[in-house]
Amino acid sequence: MITLFVKTGCPYCAKVLRAVEVLQVPVTQKNIAEAGVMDELISLGGKSQTPFLIDDERGVQMYESKHIIKYLCEHFGGDPADFDEEVANVCPL
After folding, report:
1. Which positions ≥6 away from 68 have C-beta within 8 Å?
2. What are the residue boundaries of the structural domains of the chain, listed by start?
3. Domain 2-90 belongs to what architecture?
């Protein structure tokens, strides 16, 4: 299961969500604006930074939109032409 912690209005979260949409990655989104989610994020990752991805199946946790997008591309495939220019530049396919 993949969990993605996001914040409404965060441009970095929007980039990751765009990659999730294009790659059709099944994720559970948790918005830090909802009660208790910020505390959960800090307890899991140690920071209040978003986006934050957890892939339970692979034992992976990571911050930074660029790293998350690269990870999603590597593990879920995708054609960089499907992304906007900035996302395509980090997708190594």
Report:
1. 4, 16, 19, 51, 53, 62
2. 2-90
3. 3-Layer(aba) Sandwich (3.40)
pLDDT tens per residue, range 27-73: 999 999 999 999 999 999 999 999 999 999 999 999 999 899 989 98
User: CB neighbours of 11 closer than 8 A, spacing ≥ 6?
Assistant: none
Place of tokens 């965060």: 10
CA distances from 16 to 8, 43, 47, 92 (A): 13, 22, 18, 15
Instruction: Round to whole Å and give the CA distance between 18 and 10.
Output: 12
